[in-house]
Amino acid sequence: MASNGILKLLRPSAFTLFANLRPYWLLQQRAAVVPGARHFSSDAPPGKISRYPVPYKKDLPYDIVELMEEVETKGGFLPNVFKVLSHRPAEFRAFFAYYNELMNKETGGLTKADRELIVVATSIHNQCLYCVVSHSALHRIYSKKPTLADQVAVNYKNADLSPRELAMLDFALAVCRSDTITEQHFLSLEKEGFDQEDAWDIAAIAAFFAMSNRLAHLTDMRPNTEFYNMGRMPRDKSKGEGK
Known about the structure:
By secondary structure, the protein is mainly α. The protein is 60% helix and 0% strand. It contains 12 helices and no strands. The chain has helices spanning 2-16, 22-29, 62-75, 80-85, 89-103, 112-125, 129-143, 148-155, 163-176, 183-191, 196-219, 226-229. Helix 6 (112-125) packs parallel to helix 8 (148-155), helix 9 runs antiparallel to helix 10 (183-191) and helix 9 packs across helix 11 (196-219). The chain is globular.
């Protein structure tokens, strides 16, 4: 079935991305969990997260509900972008299929932390609260650098970036601003070890999130509060062992 095919496309994103969210959030929230209660935050939104209606699970296609429940079970909470974009199920599927191709691919010269840093830098240029907050959290987790995304969000030119990261963000912002891309841009990337396929990846991420940023503006999408503190403090691995 087509829905099964879509779910298979999206599942790697659920496992590789949102599974990493669970330890940072769940350890802080465990005391608030009611034993035996099974709640999915896609049921009824606790507060306004979009100016458009957020569907109830019972009104959504099965493949989207299954993905949401998988993400929430693995990650400990459901990022609001899933709830907001479920307003248009066909576009939801297309969005996350392309997202997964860009952000979770295993080929090329960009790390997962690189990809998240591109999102932070371009999203701050586009003044997108949701993407800056959520992808800063993901960058902290992947990079194990708790302050770099905050620095980039203020002014990436003054951040503690390597020459490689600076060249990457310079190119990403050139695409984000719709600058004329010249051979000099590619030469600057090549000097830091990026090839033409890496340049495509950088540009595609900047372009995709330019769309995502504008959808967030349109819907007035609000970040989950869980994102704000995620990855800021090292995990105490002794806590929760054996539980």
